[in-house]
Amino acid sequence: MENSPAVAVNPFASADVAAILQERGWATGELSAEQVAWCAHAVAILGTQVTDREALAELLGLVFHYDSRELLARVESHAVLSRYAARDVLRQLALLLLEGTALDSERFKTIIATLKERLDIRGRELFHPIRLALAGRAGEGELDRVILLLDEAAGASFTVRVKTARERILQFCAALD
């Protein structure tokens, strides 16, 4: 029998996401069909990335809270921005986000492929500046999943206004200068 890779089990349900949104004041009252659909998408892509409810709430918080000036005040942010080609990544990312439609999984893959081709960089030099500017934190792949939720959440009209990927990169670049 072959060794197959372990499949991560998702211990959460859409109702868990909805409850976190209500508790944190990111949503109030009865959720719309669009908001319920967003909760289902959020739990599907984030639920396997975390081990407890607080970690799930932390990732969701990255969707609902974004302050570029606050991000740039952190020492860790400057460490990311001082790496090779970080500002080139941000400049190219901004151009790509400005010229297109809402950010979804396919568009994100296309943007990453374009950045790899144009800049000839990979790994953390490519991904950490993107994650910092769009998710609000440099880190691993779970942040890419947060990024994939932004534009959909912005369109779902939650109680707290969610900034799109395009809005985030514009604010980040403006605060950077």
Write a brief caption for the model.
The protein has one domain. The chain is 66% helix and 0% strand. The chain has ten helices and no strands.
Describe the structure.
About 65% of the residues lie in helices and about 0% in strands. The longest helix is centred in the middle third of the chain and has 15 residues, at about 105-120. It is mainly α and about 180 residues long. The model has no long low-confidence stretch (mean pLDDT about 95).
Keywords:
177 residues, mainly alpha, 10 helices, 66% helix, 0% strand
| Portion in strands | under 5%
The rounded Rg comes to 17 Å
Q: Report how far the terminal alpha carbons are from each other.
A: 57 Å
Mean pLDDT: 93
**Overall 3D form:** globular
Task: Set out the fold topology.
Layout: H1 14-24, H2 33-46, H3 53-64, H4 68-72, H5 75-81, H6 86-98, H7 105-119, H8 123-135, H9 142-155, H10 165-176
Helix pairs in contact: 1-2, 1-3, 2-9, 3-9, 6-8, 6-10
